Amino acid sequence: MFAERTGYIIWVSDVKAARNLEKYGSVHYISKRLQYVVMYMDAERAEDTVKNIRRLSYVRKIERSFRNEIKTEYTKAQDKTNFYGM
């Protein structure tokens, strides 16, 4: 139903030019102060897209987001009184 997506954090030197990244995937957030872009793209074509993005003159560094690999299902409900020293 939905295509598998992968998140990337792209550090840029020019925030105005970073708006052109929308043609490579969906831009989720652009930080003007820290100069980075959070974007999502199709996981099947991510490697080819990252190669094309690295060639851009305003891109400094690209990092892959590991958010989809973090465990979000918890198995055991713990008693919180142990944490408060009772």
UniProtKB/TrEMBL annotation:
Name the record gives this protein: YlbG family protein
Keywords: Cytoplasm
InterPro entries (UniProt xref): DUF2129 (IPR016979)
Lineage of source species: Bacteria, Bacillati, Bacillota, Bacilli, Bacillales
A Pfam family matched in the record: DUF2129
